Amino acid sequence: xxxxxxxxxxxxxxxxxxxxxxxxxxxxxxxxxxxxxxxxxxxxxxxxxxxxxxxxxxxxxxxxxxxxxxxxxxxxxxxxxxxxxxxxxxxxxxxxxxxxxxxxxxxxxxxxxxxxxxxxxxxxxxxxxxxxxxxxxxxxxxxxxxxxxxxxxxxxxxxxxxxxxxxxxxxxxxxxxxxxxxxxxxxxxxxxxxxxxxxxxxxxxxxxxxxxxxxxxxxxxxxxxxxxxxxxxxxxxxxxxxxxxxxxxxxxxxxxxxxxxxxxxxxxxxxxxxxxxxxxxxxxxxxxxxxxxxxxxxxxxxxxxxxxxxxxxxxxxxxxxxxxxxxxxxxxxxxxxxxxxxxxxxxxxxxxxxxxxxxxxxxxxxxxxxxxxxxxxxxxxxxxxxxxxxxxxxxxxxxxxxxxxxxxxxxxxxxxxxxxxxxxxxxxxxxxxxxxxxxxxxxxxxxxxxxxxxxxxxxxxxxx
Length: 464
Ligand code: LLP
Description:
Blueprint: E1 38-39, E2 45-47, E3 50-51, H1 52-59, E4 63-67, H2 68-81, E5 86-90, H3 97-105, E6 109-112, H4 115-123, E7 131-133, H5 140-149, E8 153-156, H6 159-172, E9 176-183, E10 205-206, H7 211-220, E11 225-231, H8 242-262, E12 268-270, H9 288-306, E13 312-315, H10 319-322, E14 326-339, E15 345-351, H11 360-364, E16 371-372, E17 381-387, E18 396-404, E19 412-416, E20 437-441, E21 444-449, H12 454-460
Parallel strand pairs: 4-20, 5-6, 5-13, 6-7, 7-8, 8-9, 9-10, 9-11, 11-12, 12-13, 15-17
Antiparallel strand pairs: 1-2, 2-3, 4-14, 14-15, 14-19, 16-19, 17-18, 20-21
Helix pairs in contact: 3-4, 5-6, 7-8, 8-9
Ligand LLP binds next to helix 10 and helix 11.
């Protein structure tokens, strides 16, 4: 079905200000795509050496394709931009056994939050001592498992957790290295649900309220805990270094207070993750070396001012490693022009996935972009809204994007920047099986996480 007849070219009032009508719809905005993505002579999008149309023919859609070389290149980029720092990949952003292996092979460490993430990381060959165990409600079972495996460090989040860790250490004859997660009071400029350093939220212990210092002292006096230092994570998808700089200042001030209280200097400081990536033309993340230089300068400045030795530093990027390496592909199922007030028309393009495989637009009003992937088109750009197949009006994947006006049922749409927090937060809403994660390297694709089937769903349904 072609829709050219129904185009209304006046988008004033319904087009967001940041979105520009592209001069050439077939051109790729290279900052959004895995390095080396291009269109071949026939116009098809090529990701990691594989044609989008071939990938979808082989693996179906919707599907998440991860460019392995691009993923690894982001691991390397962090190591190179932050020499001497410990880099933990945040497994919550996307984790499979193969991905844990890539991270291990690239020499990074891994941040895990649950038994599930620990099990996958270990099964992928990540050594336990390179794991950092996060979470605000670690269960006794998870704590015991982590101790038995020899997990490298715990990021302690509450006084109850300290007691649970001590009880488990007493019982199993373990000792553990720990950081205390603190809230620095920084208001990170990002969506409320992914900002985590302001006071009124569930993570960490407050510096301002004194609980952070109390927890550090408590850990220092514990016979089972080898206290390493302070952990701060201010939020996610952050572009400005300012929030991190405030966090550095406040955590080092806390380290200084701790030294005054105990005479002990804390050897480590972990600044968490949160490095923003480009999802649309409007996003311009800073180069990593610029971010690193700002961090370094701030740490050195504060340490000098407080007379502290420079601690061993760590960061925990998730999105900035897996996000840009991932491309989601969908097939167009229906195209519906909807008349708005004033005679304008919004074109709804329905694809075969939706909020069950990417909840981010619905949850955080996250913006994405997309291109027609199986061919090029010289047709006029048409402002479209890409929506999913779920029974919910808010099932919007891309609120506003220009696609060619000859877009047709069966065309493939590719969405860049899809590696992080889409498949990892996927659900079975409307009993839709979750899509696969497919690694692609030099034109060869390998299923890392297979597509769920209706049989998988039926097997879970054990009631009569
Ligand atoms: N470290 C800690 C302690 C974290 O809680 C997180 C993310 C990270 C590191 C990694 O942050 P990243 O570098 O990926 O920004 N679901 C949301 C993001 C939630 C992030 C949760 N914690 C989203 O889709 O935007």
